[in-house]
Write a structure and sequence with these properties.
This protein has 226 residues and is α/β, with parallel strands linked by helices. It has six helices and twelve strands. It has a single domain, classed as BirA Bifunctional Protein, domain 2. Strands 1, 2, 6, 7, 8, 9, 10, 11 and 12 form a nine-stranded mixed β-sheet that branches. Strands 4-3-5 form a three-stranded mixed β-sheet, with no helix packed on it. The model has no long low-confidence stretch (mean pLDDT 91).
């Protein structure tokens, strides 16, 4: 049986707002039949994002303090509370049609993380409450999506070599739970870039799709969305 294809691309360091605009434009094109589905993998500049259900008090640093630390703050339309993104963190944005519903989509993203970290000797698991990918009592990856007309945007953030002290600026996802990273769990963690395409392929597989590389012309098309 031939699986439907989804294009996967590592876009490198990308500003959060730029990545969000690109996702929304891709979603519009997918809905109107002008684009194929894509999984975008990025690393962000330091940013705190507030989801639809976020409590602003979960940002623990005042605006001046955030500015001094080089952290921007963005209110977004994804689900969930407050999350930090930044260097050392691999963020995956599958802009795809939902085939099996929201819960199954979120579970697929989480299981892809579990699949990718297993060869590193990390035993992780998906939990629905609190939602995320966990290693024991510590959260390794956060998940939050937004769906419109059956097409999802946003996705997951996997802490690879993320400096964990950055999470002290927030109450991560509104929880008092500890946050962890691959750098804390394994002696020689891979780089964000090295893990990007394997994670993209794992997401595609868990979504029941075949991962293919994105053509350079399409990369230019995405980069032009502002």
């Amino acid at each position: 049986m031939l699986l439907p294809a989804v294009e996967v691309a590592w876009l490198g360091r990308t500003a959060y707002l730029s990545a969000w605009r690109q996702q929304e434009e891709l979603r519009r094109r997918i809905i109107t039949g002008q684009s194929v589905e894509r999984i975008l993998l990025v690393e962000h500049d330091p940013v705190i994002t507030l989801g639809r259900n976020a409590d602003p008090s979960h940002v623990l640093i005042d605006p001046r303090g955030l500015l001094e630390r080089g952290i921007t703050c963005v209110t977004t339309n994804r689900g969930g509370d407050v999350t930090y993104h930044g260097p050392g963190q691999l963020v995956a944005y599958p802009v795809v049609r939902l085939e099996r519903g929201v819960v199954a989509h979120v579970a697929a993203l989480a299981q892809a993380v579990v699949d990718v970290v297993a060869p590193l000797g990390v035993v992780a698991e998906f939990r629905r409450a609190p939602i995320g990918v966990w290693v024991g009592d510590a959260k390794l990856a956060a998940i939050g999506i937004h769906v419109s007309r059956h097409v999802a945007v946003h996705g997951l953030a996997l802490n690879v070599t993320t400096p964990l002290e950055m999470f002290q600026t927030i109450v991560p996802c509104g929880l008092s739970s500890r946050v962890t990273s691959l750098a804390e769990l394994v002696a020689s963690p891979p780089s964000v870039e090295a893990l990007a395409l394997p994670l993209g392929a794992a997401i595609a597989a868990r979504l029941g799709k075949s991962a293919v590389g994105m053509r350079s012309s399409l990369l230019s098309e995405i980069a032009s969305v502002e």
